[in-house]
Amino acid sequence: MTTGGQSGTSGKAAFRLGPWGAIALLTVPVVLVNATSDLIEMQRSGLSVHTVEPFIWEVTSAAVLVLMAPLVGWAVKRWPLLGPGLPLALLIHAGLSVPFSLAHVGAMVPAREAAYAVLGWQYDFFSGGFWVTLLYEWRKDLITYGIFVGIYTAYAWWAARAAAPGPEPAPAPERIEVKTGGRTLFLLPGEILWLEAAGNYVTLHTEGGSHLLRATLADWEKRLSAPAQTVSNGFTPDQPADTSSAKPDFVRIHRSRIVNRHHIRETRTTSSGDFELTLSNGATLTGSRRFRSGLG
């Protein structure tokens, strides 16, 4: 993570997944790997170093970074990367990496000096030159800061996605209660093909047959034109569909007939100017020219 000062070497920037708690937890294996790597590399280079020194370097650096990570999280909330302001946010975070690095060094060096003093040793962090050492540390801290920003951004994206409401369940199709004879039928509006006036009665036609009901066509027209809690499945005359769940659209085609638009398969204009409809069950109905606009 950081330089070892006079006798140290550079550690490795570690990628830590998750928010602050995960960063803190993953710091333990990261410190162990970096410290042992520093120790092995220095021994291979013939440098004299006490076994505990790389652990002092890595523990002090990691502890300061973990304590500072929530500040990066706050900055990500203040200047998020998710959204239209990405270029500006990147510039701001690049600039914030400078005080981030200075704060890291400013807290880490006294901690190392204190640890060395307890052991009766001396520690010189800036032996390679003040500005050169700061630039060297900022180069690595810039990467660490970027990793923190990426972690907090990814976590915010996951949290927002988890909190997003799912699609609303489709409402249950409305059923129509039809009393005929001694029976009570429950029909989906989409099952009705057409209705036809018969004096003080209405004949209701479905795929399964016809039912004579004591009511007027005007009453049924009002009933079927009320807001229905049914679900449309995108049915068109050229596209087969399950009309039992399609949203019905009942239109008057004659003063004595109302038809379910979703069951219309074909329209033809007659020589008189009226029109004929062919329905999904093959039935043919005659419509009056004065009601033709309702089919548009």
Describe this structure in words.
The protein contains five helices and ten strands, in the order H-H-H-H-E-E-E-E-E-H-E-E-E-E-E. It has two domains: about 5-165, no CATH class; about 175-295, OB fold (Dihydrolipoamide Acetyltransferase, E2P). By secondary structure, it is an alpha+beta fold. The longest helix is centred in the middle third of the chain and has 34 residues, at about 130-165. The two termini are about 70 Å apart. The protein is rod-shaped, with a radius of gyration of 39 Å. The strands form three sheets. The protein has a five-stranded antiparallel β-sheet, covered by helices on one side. Strand 4 (about 200-205) and strand 5 form a beta hairpin. Mean pLDDT is about 80; it is low at about 5-15 and about 230-245. Helix 2 (about 55-80) packs antiparallel against helix 3 (about 85-120), helix 2 crosses helix 4 (about 130-165) and helix 3 (about 85-120) packs across helix 4 (about 130-165).
